[in-house]
Design brief:
heterodimer; A: 753 residues; mainly alpha; 1% strand; B: 411 residues; mainly beta; five-stranded antiparallel sheet; elongated; nucleus (chain A); Trafficking protein particle complex subunit 12 (chain A); TPR_rpt (chain A); TPR repeat (chain A)
Chain lengths: 753, 411
Amino acid sequence: MNSGEAPAQRPVTLDITVEDVNKEAPGPDPPEPTISQTPSIDSVIPQEDSIDLGAEFATPQEDSSTTPSESLMDKLNDQMMESVMISDSPNNSEEDEVAPIDSFLDGGEEEDNAQETPGSKGEQSEIGHNTTEIKVAMEEEEEEEEEKGGSVLKADEDTKEQPDTQEQVTAFVSPEADAQSPSDLKSGEPAPQEARGTSPKEEPVPVCTIFSHGTQPKSLVPDGFQPTLIKSPSFSMGSGGGSEEAVTPSKLTAPLVCQPSPSLSKFFTDNGHVNPASDFFDSFTATSSFISVSNPNAELPPGSTAPAPTQAPATQPQPFNQLQAVFSGSDDPFATALSLSEVDRRHDAWLPSEETRKVLISVATQQYSPAYVETNRLTMPGLKFDNLQGDAVKDLMLRFLGEPAAMKRQVLTANSVEQSFTGLKRLISSKNWRAAIDLMGRLLTAHGQGYGKAGQPTSHTTDSLQLWFVRLALLTKLNLFQNAELEFEPFGNLDQPDLYYEYYPTVYPGRRGSMVPFSMRLLHAELPQYLVKPQEALDRLHNLKTVCLAVRSLKLWRSRLSRVMYSMANCLLLMKDYVLAVETYHSIIQYEPLQRVQLLSGIGRIFLQIGDVKTAERYFEDVEKACQMTGSQPSHTTCVLMNRAFVYLSQNNYTEAHASFTDVLKIDPKNPVANNNAAVCLLYLGRLKESLGQLEGLVQQDPALYLHESVLFNLTTMYELESSRSTQKKQALLEAVAGREGDSFNTQCLKLV
Amino acid sequence: MEVNQAKQEHLLALKVMRLTKPTLFTNLPVTCEDRDLPGDLFAQLMREDPSTIKGAEALMLGEMLTLPQNFGNIFLGETFSSYISVHNDSNQVVKDILVKADLQTSSQRLNLSASNSAVGELKPECCIDDVIHHEVKEIGTHILVCAVSYTTQYGEKLYFRKFFKFQVLKPLDVKTKFYNAETDEVFLEAQIQNITTSAMFMEKVSLEPSMMYNVTELNTVTSGEDGESTFGKMSYLQPMDTRQYLYCLKPKPEYAEKAGVIKGVTVIGKLDIVWKTNLGERGRLQTSQLQRMAPGYGDIRLSLEMIPDTVNLEEPFDIICKITNCSERTMDLVLEMCNTRSIHWCGVSGRQLGKLSPGAFLSLPLILLSSVQGLQSISGLRLTDTFLKRTYEYDDIAQVCVVCPYTNNEC
């Protein structure tokens, strides 16, 4: 070996096994000469303090190219890739619309319409008597109709019934709340409720439409106040009162035979607001027309008149089969009002498996009642852990800053907000996701799907599934992947018959499709990739993609397709299958032409990440061309400069990289990425103090933007490099964090522990 | 130096951080649709997150740079860069500070400090910064030795050292294989395996031939104007992946003349490999000189200069043999041609070829035919050196494909 003689500039010589064909056998590697001449290192070391770099920097075994949030990527390191075929959709005919899905279910639906049996009629009329508990959630396709529908509902409003309903609901719920969170109760209310077992009749299939954007064509008298929750079949089917107790642990509620149902609605009534529903509905998907319709209070002045056709059935127990007859006639105004919203249909469309489809048809044709579907075909979710609530920031404060300081930390908890979506929204937007998860746990407990309820028969509504979705989504956001997986497990592949509207013909008459939000399917598909099962994630994503392609011509489904493609590309990137990841990102451009610049830049960064600077530059050139074509938007100029900076960085030219990031700041002085990246460049230029000063200043001036885990991680890293007093400085950061951030803050980036 | 020096409180603190390339922050997109319960909330959270790509929040790979979070691995051929910061933790001014950074390897000690001159004074809360770079050229244990000496305001001279130990690992496994062509060309197959834990972009894998050879790289498919790499569009190597590179070496004309005389071990050249990883982190290696044992030709080398690949059954065809005297002495040769089961030589066997001096060669046209269809091996040439009465046998010199010209019509 000539390493000894090698002058400094010379590249290193690597030992090599040389096989000559003439010698048949490929010999083993010869021993490394370099090693053999190693003098004992120990002799060099005096007895002064010797530091293994491992201690200073953590384990040397780890991949150097990880970011704090990337540890899961490392886990994926060993995963072998399989190539996955990406089938692009060559066919763009606008004709096929949702047809494929419809055709699967059409048979069932027709029969459903045709034969409304006397049995179901009876049910309907019973519900009719129970009018106070049933929320009208009308759903309209068009905005104009929205108004119409709204006024209808308005007229129906019976003011006398309002307190009634409210109290009922409260009454019903409070025992449960006792068990869970006593503080939630309004103390005055329990007494009246009990007296009131108002609903005189059994309610075989109670209805809930809290967040409903669901169609409720059979809408009865709307109380204009609260939607109520559907009960689980086990509570309502047949046995009535007895099973109620299962839902409501407290025996106090025994007389409440025919509750409006265990109710999420509590969380919307029991909050002391006169009209919480409006808050809720206003905040919830303002863009969606049907939802606002379902919120008469919000939309309409009291006492407005003009009852619309839909009202008729509401006021008196009109036989449901009549309604159905009306429903099938196309010219009837009733039908117009009641007919399925096309938007809904598109939104909920899904392809059930063959088996599920059969069950749904059977249900629709009344061949057998949903009650007799084998339990292994049912979805029986329940909370898998009770209380997540915790605040790592506060814990750290206790440990480092002492009790008095920690007491100052104020965050919203599940208890401190309205037990409603308004509260939920506050928790989510204030980044108290743990508290939000707890709150959703309560709501689900009220729905009979609480802790330990997994495996017990229950029923589902659009709302309960939405709650599950948000809970699982937040668990994922908090990197609590295992918890999310546990709670997802009872949902199987999200294709059980009881997750389809057709399964509840009386609750959602005429409504078809899946109650599972598409976003929940996507989450379900993505989840395994964070648990070192990227192949499974890809399989699921491909299934989603197949369905998206089946209905791809619609705008909604196109955007869903592009979202699925994003997930696939992200998953492939996690798997480090860069070829397919790049291909997939590239294919998204056709669906999201407006994101061309971002996508091409992203692909360029992937190439930089794997070290292929030249190809990255080619992509960045394409970005510049795309930017020129669209005219000069500031965001595009920023993007071009940013890309340039990354190229300089990859060429080890930190001076120019810093200059480019600074150029971005001339256009967009508040750009947090450019600010942070410029500071990082300064460090590589040996200007630690400047870099620190810059980042510190940013965090102080604009904590909203800079109390971000990546920035704080950089800052704490520099503190550690700068002086021996990094702990104090980190504690100061902790205080800044405590003043602003919610319980979902990832304290690891402070590196205090 | 005092004995208990290590325990002494120092006014200065020395911190070292390895500067691998920063990494791009990755986010975890969780989205919902407008009609879902959170409505616009999730989208809003993602838009407000400074690390997301605005307008394409679902794109996981962001633009935010984060500093290296651990030492990571360092591989032979990469550059070891490190930030060295000496900070005055005390509240007094410190004078005559000298910071020295040495790298101790198994075989040598290198000084990496940018400057060796002392800093006059350092005020409280101030630092001395240095960024050192070193391309590592040895495998195994390395120790970064940082020594700081300074004078307190009371004139006390103090000194301390810190040691940072790290291992340099081997990034690539390289295996080579030579194929000798019937002509004087040599083909080199190099198998390069990435034995690191991250993907590697192979920027350059070239063979630097020794002075005797010209090299042609056979790693592109020439279609159109640009040669397309045989490895596809993306030239990166996943961990543990192996890739084969192929090179063709031709002796330069001046050496080709003597090709027959090349004997024993010859130096072919060396492989020069440049790779890059995260954000252009670069590494470079050269192999040691690749050596090849020249095929032994004995005293006389018989090679073919011309031979058809396909011939007709029972039809005579021409070949041209080249006979080179690889020995140190002059030979007087007689050629015998022995028929085999399928190969029939035409012409007189036992003819004199005359004298051949060392290193000289002669070209010999011969005619033969095959009586059997299929792939036939040409065998049966015998050369006898009348001086030493030594006979050299040449069998399986080449192969020809023998076809029946009438097959198509008859069948």
